[in-house]
Amino acid sequence: MAPSTNGYHNQHRAELLHHTIITKKLSVTCAEDRLSELRGLMNKSEGDPLRVVGIGAGAWGSVFMAMLREAYGPVGDDKVQFRMWRRAGKAVDRASAHCLFDVINSREDVLRRLICNCAYLKYVEARLGDRVLYADEILRDGFCVNMLETPLCPVKVVTNLQEAVWDADIVVNGLPSTETRLVFEEIGRYWGERIALPVVISLAKGVEAVLKPVPHIVTPTQMIHEATNVPISNILYLGGPNIASEVYNKEYANARICGSEKWAKPIANFLRQPHFTVWDNPDLVTHEVMGGLKNVYAIGAGMVAALTNESATSKAVYFAHCTSEMIYITHLLAEEPEKLTGPLLADTYVTLLKGRNAWYGQRIAKGEIRPDMGDSIQGKGMIQGVSAVEAFYELLCQPSLSVMHPERKKEVVPVELCPILKTLYNILIKREASAEAILQALRDENMYDPRHRIEIASVNNCSMLQLPCTPKTVQLDRESILEC
Q1: What is the CA radius of gyration of the chain?
Q2: Burial 91-112, CB ≥16 within 10 A → b, else e
Q3: Which end of the chain has the lower number of beta carbons within 10 A, N or C?
């Protein structure tokens, strides 16, 4: 007698359920092993949970914390706890409330979760205009105000900064670089009497330019160090070719955690997941500088894409010139920078291809946004490339710094070899040029081969900015140029 169809399907469902249960058990076991290793390094005793705190709730910061919560939540709150800090009081506008309502009703799992938690009705009321939602309120339900169409795993949210950080073991900096120093100066006051200082993972990309007494840049990890007195060996930078919503939806991605070997290796192991590979790397300087530069040039990439109707040739020409400028600048700021290959190149590529900075450049070129409207955009958050354009330009145009021009055969300020950076500064900061100027810069008949710029940096001993303070050009030591 042949087995019934119903019997076959029931058996198949039972096998799938068994496989799912086994897979989850294995995943929890692996998470427990990785967590135990890190708890041991941090001298955590039984019953004292590892406390991971996210500061700032932009798209990538929210996704990063939600991924960790999903991976380690099943281990139990007695072993690890997660919470996020964001400012209270940011209202969700009516259009966003409409979008949020549509997203909720399109996802059965999200709808069921909200109904089960008695949280659905407020979204109905917001859709009807009967109440106002707030960013910290919806974050508790798993919605980031900068990424409404990608529901996240809910994470505990607090709006009191002292409550969030006072006993943190690991702090994840998800703030824009322009806000990092101010917030961490406040955090530093709360950590003043701590014996064991936390490990900080910075996701911020951008720099500050300090022009006196000696021109130099300050990266986000250095801002955190200066603001809190946390040793630089305890501060790491994470970067990679990652679009937040795609990473959360488990598109395969990779990243590098950069800093001291003491913490980079165990933190890399802690962050690693089946769809998110994390490698450790000691070159903090190059990765942070590149992290700031890629946002600068992504704005230009968006402009070129919009102005040329997505011309592959034009975008390739732009890519060649902008990467040569990035390599040139990095050689000026780091003694032995890692080459722009592998994850560093991929991070640049994906940022130029897709992301908020490229989106911003496109909207500028199409006239939908003006530079005088500011760099904080509703639904997108802070466009970090704008402040980075100003910082890098101001640093590289200092009269006290000089490099040899490949064709003029005379010393010029370094920014003279960065035509794209100069053009972006004129468009976004001085506002004396239109977006079309970016194409004029690429089509300049006097533009020299990008390899010359790279040769200047790598062959002519330009691993440090130079200050002609006497008739003889004197090289500055690296620490005075880059406080990192």
Answers
A1: 24
A2: ebeeebbebbbebbeeeeebee
A3: N
* Alpha helices in 191-308, H assignment, sequence order: 220-228, 244-248, 261-271, 284-307
For residue 443, give every residue at least 6 positions away whose Cβ sits within 8 Å of its Cβ, in sequence order, or none.
none
Q: Considering all CA atoms of the chain, what is the largest pairwise distance in Å, rounded to the nearest integer?
A: 101
Collapsed DSSP state (helix, strand, coil) of residue 382: strand
The DSSP symbol for 91 reads: B
Mean pLDDT of 394-399: 90
Annotated catalytic residue 294: yes
Q: Which of 44, 122, 205, 294 is flagged as catalytic?
A: 294
Of the ranges 261-265, 367-371, 379-383, 475-479, which one carries the lowest mean pLDDT score?
A: 475-479
pTM of the model: 0.86
| Beta-sheet pairing, 411-412 with 403-404 | antiparallel
Compute φ and ψ for 470, nearest 5 degrees. -135, 175
Mind listing the pLDDT tens digit for each residue in 137-170?
999 999 999 999 999 999 999 999 999 999 999 9
pLDDT tens digit sequence for 193-249: 888 899 999 999 988 888 888 888 899 999 999 999 999 999 999 999 989 999 999
pLDDT digits (tens, 9 = 90+) for 74-95: 999 999 999 999 999 999 999 9
Show contacts of 208-211: CB within 8 Å, 24+ apart.
Answer: 208/177, 208/181, 208/391, 209/390, 209/391, 209/392, 209/394, 209/395, 210/483, 211/394, 211/395, 211/398
Helices and strands (H, E) in the chain, number of each type: 20, 16
Q: What is the dihedral of CA 64, 67, 69, 73, to 10 degrees?
A: -160
**Partners of 255 in the β-ladder:** 278
Cβ–Cβ under 8 Å, residues 281 and 264: yes
Q: How far apart are CA 402 and CA 414, in angstroms?
A: 6
List the beta bridge partners of residue 55: 85, 173
> CA 13 to CA 19: how far, in whole Å?
10
